[in-house]
Amino acid sequence: MRHSVALNLSKCLGCTTCIKSCPTEAIRVRSRKATILPNRCIDCGTCIQVCPHQAVRSQRMNVKEALQRFKYNIAIPDPSLYGQFHNLDDANIVLNALLTIGFDDIFEAGTASEMLAATLDGSEGLEAPQKPELSPACPAVVRLICIRFPDLLNHLPPLVTPIELAAILARKQAVEAGVPAEDIGVFSIVPCSSQVTAVSAPEGLEKPVLDGALAIRDVYLELLGPMRDLDKGNMLPLAGSREGTSWAFSGGEALTRRERRYIAVDGIVNVIRMLEEIEDGRMPDADFIELRACTNGCLGGCLNVENPFTAKMHLKDLMGNLPPSPQWGVREDVLEILRSTKEPVFLPTFQLDPNRRVAMQKMMAIQTLEEQLPGLRCGSCGAPSCRAFAEDVVMGRASVDDCIFKVRERMQHMAGDTEADDYMPAPFRLRRKQPAPETDCLEPMGPQDSGEERPE
Question: What are phi and psi of 115, to 5 degrees?
């Protein structure tokens, strides 16, 4: 699997900020440079947002170069695109500006969201997932479930995202309109790195249905001029409804699904905590759980421009000018797409060995080594935790001497009577008893200083 999250090693200083923030412990620092374990990465983009040196990035396409590849280009904009603009009162301004920069047609992901929700809720021809149903709209969350929570795979409905559904329907419409299939290019405009990865590696489809993904921050820059110069009185009515647009922020999908009892969870740490509770049998009293890896949903994606909370305010103001959703009902073409999806499969990323006996031996070795480590999660070994470091040692990805506390023990043995701490950095020296401060030069606290009343 090719990931969109990549490292710029020329900027990486090995500061260990990323390893402490990665939710799946997919990053290590070796030789003062970060490295990613590809089988553990879910492309959530957390490392992109926290890196202080901008050494982690998402691989992106150039907008102009992408549009030159095909004769007929279709844009699939995510609703979070609208929240990036200040004082936007009409989504048609953005959509018509997309036509001026080189796109020939628009199919909103928000419209596909409504079609998808109506078909999932109204069709009796689909096998119902186990309750509570988990949303498959976020590719990062779906991959997280596949590698870490395999017992919850049967809680997922058919794996088709709104952007993928929009791409399939848009391409079909263009072909029916007489455009040769080989001339059509379908590009999504996305807020996060997981959506970029999903273009080439969709979880539920047999093959990719998109020709590329464009970052919202790149398209944003291309749109500023055309939006300013656009003839507002001569625009095509391309905007969708408020319900589909609400998928951009946490809770919007659940409202579109019309679930009366739902939970909306955003932020990858909160998502993991919720999934752990369900896996442990503490089922929430809900029929549907919407899960988004980014804070505030897709508005918090690493490829956006605006602060996610400000963007939500912008989007809610815009939604007040949008019409309500039409009554889509069950669409047979959407139902056929859902029936053709693949079953989600467990990815044994954290498996220590295919042989269960060998795996148990490795697990015991990891536990034994972990008990000998300080448990400080200092990151000086290049691993996010002592548990992860112990696993790296047993699996041959690190040496036990990479732990600075193990180095202390060896130095103490070699130094004899000399303090090994004299050679250690200050944060890792053992705590010594400090001498009491001299009190002769300190003035005693008077009544006024102590807050006590001075006697008459």
Answer: -60, -40
Strands annotated E in 212-351: 212-215, 262-266, 288-292
Say if residue 13's pLDDT is above 80.
yes
Superfamily of domain 356-428: Electron transport complex subunit B, putative Fe-S cluster (1.10.15.40)
Q: How many CA atoms lie within 13 A of 346 on its CB side?
A: 10
Q: Best-predicted range by mean pLDDT among 120-129, 167-176, 418-427, 431-440?
A: 167-176
Indicate left, alpha or beta for 54 from its phi (over 0: left) and psi (-120 to 50: alpha): left
Is the omega angle on the peptide bond into residue 157 within 30 degrees of 0, that is, cis?
Answer: no
Please identify which residue in the block is written with the tokens 């280009």.
73
Residue 349 CB-density burial (10 A; 0-12 exposed, 13-18 middle, 19+ buried): middle
pLDDT digits (tens, 9 = 90+) for 245-285: 999 999 999 888 876 789 999 999 999 999 999 999 888 88
Residues 6+ apart with CB under 8 A from 109: 76, 77, 78, 79, 162, 163, 166, 188, 244, 247
Whether the CB-CB separation of 283 and 132 falls below 8 Å is answered with yes
pLDDT in tens, 186-222: 999 999 999 999 999 999 999 999 999 999 999 999 9
Helix (H) / strand (E) element for 36: namely strand 33-36
How far apart CA 215 and CA 399 sit, in angstroms, is: 40
Q: How far is CA 127 from the centre of its chain?
A: 28
| Cβ atoms 198, 146 nearer than 8 A | no
Helix axes 139-148, 268-279, angle to 10 degrees: 40
CA distance 246 to 80: 9
What global pTM score does this model have? 0.87
Structure tokens at 333: 């073409």
CATH classification number, 5-58, choose in 3.30.70.20, 1.10.530.10, 3.40.640.10, 3.40.1180.10: 3.30.70.20
Angstrom distance (rounded) from CA 114 to CA 92: 18
Distance of CA 384 to the CA centre of its chain: 19
Cβ atoms 24, 67 nearer than 8 A: no
Nearest to 350 by CA among 339, 363, 337: 363
